[in-house]
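idk why but the lab printer keeps eating my pages so im just putting this in chat instead. protein + glutamine:
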Amino acid sequence: MTIGILALQGDVDEHLAALHRAGASATTVRTPSELHDVDALIVPGGESTTVMKLLHRFHLGEPIVSRVRAGMPLWGTCMGMIVVARDVAPHPQPSLRLLDVTVRRNAFGRQNDSAEIPLPIPALGPRPFPAVFIRAPWIERVGPDVALLAQRDGHGVMVRQGNVLGTSFHPELTEDLRAHRFFLDMVHRREDVGKQRSVA
Ligand code: GLN
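predcted complex ->
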């Protein structure tokens, strides 16, 4: 099982290192054939308008959408969550529309350009998670099928809709591997379902 990290722009190496520390096999994805070879995809932080343009140029947008619709797990961190959100505020912009949420870009303001706060995330255990926010979006609408996993100051910052996970913050920038392990668990469970199906 190999996790791909979309490597068009952004903090790719940090995700690679975190996945390796968590004992997973991970590789970068820049082409449709590299996407074909991975079992799950992380879209890292970066700049969402730039990455949407690059996805188009590298012919990766459509294959990502069809893989995720077919069940491939995807995790968007910060910019990655903006890229997969259904709607983007305050200025609408193109996105892959795989996660039924509205995200507001740069919502936590300049004073929080790079804040690390202890964030309660019950799904990751009783200990708060050291969440790093860098010009981060918040989630201001969640669709009926979306589970809200964490909030900061009353605003959504971690959500899951089936095989799609989104975080406003950057778990790859801390030593805490629980968010990466949570995603790996989503991938393993999906693999198990696939195996059961092929046996049946
Ligand atoms: N502010 C960036 C955007 O809106 C996201 C920042 C990040 O990924 N750290 O695209």
